[in-house]
Amino acid sequence: MSKFIRKKIAFVLTGMLLAIVLISCEAVPVAEAPSPEVTFTNVSSSPVASPDGELSASPAQLPKLPYDYAALGKAIDAETMKLHHDGHHASYVNNLNDALKEEPDLQTSSVEALLRDLNNVPENIRTKVRNNGGGHLNHTIFWQIMSPDGGGEPTDEIAAEINETFGSFDQFKEQFNQAGGDRFGSGWVWLVRNPAGELQIVTTANQDNPIMDGAYPIMGNDVWEHAYYLRYRNRRGEYLTNWWNVVNWPEINKRSLASMQSGN
User: How far is Cα 248 from Cα 146, in angstroms, rounded to an integer?
Assistant: First the structure.
């Protein structure tokens, strides 16, 4: 065999060997697993005024306080409670009914439904429905989440979730009070379940309710001056601190569970 042929054969064999090596080193394509489908629940779709039902607007009615005016004395005096419930809350109810008196179709909606879809409310009464419907809903929640036997630390599921989300109950209280103190003018500070299903501290102006932003209000504190001024004057921070002595944790835990079941 000639020298030329031997070189040619060696060249071909070398090429074949190199091709085999390259093929063996080539990455084998791996089919990607499909991404899990993520869905978010509309956490504001369940009853908000109470886990048991929504607020009727046909007509709106002032709920009774579940305790005496003086029962929350650890944080709120009797005179403030009477003025707050019989005066301010009653005015929201009366004004809401007045706004809806010429709108029989809207009267068949719940207060929550009206606030979730304010664009469906005629423009000439929209602000009145927003302010007074919100005031009625906010205060209906407020009376329930306080108790003469309240205070202390949370228990059950809400306790675990607060610790997981905020680090500890003390850190949660600090952040909640800070947000309430920083709310300029009149409004509310809330613990909500947001549209992603997470706990979050938010504030709202005036009588706006978190359901207007798609969140579920689990607990909230009223930082309008009428909620504390007779006793605390301009010391909002002292009011926010004392308020924890009347917080109704069993009711708040019930509301938290309802917020997780929303939309199901």
Answer: 5
**Separation between Cα atoms, residue 252 and residue 264, nearest integer Å:** 20
Let me know: does 108 contact 65? Beta carbons within 8 Å. no
- The more confident residue out of 67 and 23 is 67
C-alpha 206/C-alpha 18 separation (Å) is 77
* C-beta of residue 178 within 8 angstroms of C-beta of residue 221: no
Cα dihedral 53, 180, 73, 217 in deg (nearest 10):
10
* pTM of the shown model: 0.83
Question: Which stretches of the chain are DSSP H helices?
Answer: 3-25, 78-82, 90-100, 104-107, 111-116, 123-144, 156-166, 169-182, 229-232, 236-243, 249-260
Is the CB of residue 224 less than 8 Å from the CB of residue 20?
Answer: no
The DSSP code for 145 is T
